């Protein structure tokens, strides 16, 4: 065999070994991540940078074993144990305890505030305790101003009626002075 042929065979073997290693590495990563796409040949091929048929034709047994390993981890409850340590669990427990205490304090504060507000509403509605001097003064002033506005509106209406009557009388007097008959429709101006 010639050197060129041997070099081509060696290069092809090297490429195939690289593709094989990249697919096996993707499968290992997916097992570690507990990736649900582990049984998807297309996803494995995409991540490894190879064709789907290459994965399906050569790695079906490896993928099946990897899927069994994932299932075993889920069944025995060790799926996430590798990523948790005792120290991280203690830190999380402390953090959750502090959050629960802060939330309990906030809840107690809100309950107390709600009780006070509800108590005020009940007192105002049923006992008439909203009669503080300031409120009484404001209500009296409001009633006086409302009465004054009503009086002014009545006066305005009366003044408008008087003005309209004076205009009619003025128009009638002008017609009489100009020699027009009082009921002459040709001399009436529409206003």
In short:
The protein has six helices and no strands.
Instruction: Give average pLDDT, whole number.
Output: 84
Q: What percentage of residues falls in helices of 4 or more residues?
A: over 70%
Radius of gyration: 48 Å
SSE order: HHHHHH
Count all strands and give the number.
0
- Name the poorly predicted regions: none
Task: Give the number of helices.
Answer: 6
Could you say which structural class the secondary elements and strand pairing correspond to? Answer: mainly alpha
β content, as a range?
under 5%
Report how far the terminal alpha carbons are from each other. 120 Å
Could you describe the largest sheet, including whether it forms a barrel? none
Shape: elongated
Count the domains: 3
Describe the 3D structure.
The protein is mostly helical. It contains 6 helices and no strands. The protein starts with a helix and ends in a 14-residue tail after the last helix.
Please render the helix and strand layout as text.
Blueprint lengths: L2 H31 L7 H8 L3 H7 L1 H17 L9 H42 L5 H45 L14
From the structure above, extract its key features.
191 residues, mainly alpha, 3 domains
């Amino acid at each position: 065999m010639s050197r060129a042929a041997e070099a081509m065979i060696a290069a092809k073997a090297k490429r195939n070994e690289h593709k094989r290693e990249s697919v096996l590495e993707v499968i290992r990563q997916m097992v570690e991540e507990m990736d649900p796409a582990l049984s998807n040949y297309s996803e494995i091929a995409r991540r490894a940078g190879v064709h789907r048929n290459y994965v399906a034709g050569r790695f079906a047994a490896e993928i099946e074993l990897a899927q069994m390993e994932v299932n075993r981890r889920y069944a025995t409850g060790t799926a996430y144990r590798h990523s948790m340590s005792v120290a991280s669990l203690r830190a999380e427990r402390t953090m959750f305890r502090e959050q629960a205490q802060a939330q309990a304090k906030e809840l107690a504060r809100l309950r107390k505030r709600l009780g006070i507000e509800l108590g005020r509403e009940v007192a105002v509605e049923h006992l008439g305790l909203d009669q503080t001097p300031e409120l009484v003064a404001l209500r009296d002033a409001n009633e006086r101003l409302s009465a004054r506005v009503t009086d002014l509106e009545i006066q305005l209406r009366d003044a408008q009626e008087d003005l309209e009557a004076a205009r009619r009388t003025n128009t009638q007097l002008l017609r009489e002075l100009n020699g027009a008959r009082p009921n002459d429709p040709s001399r009436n101006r529409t206003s």
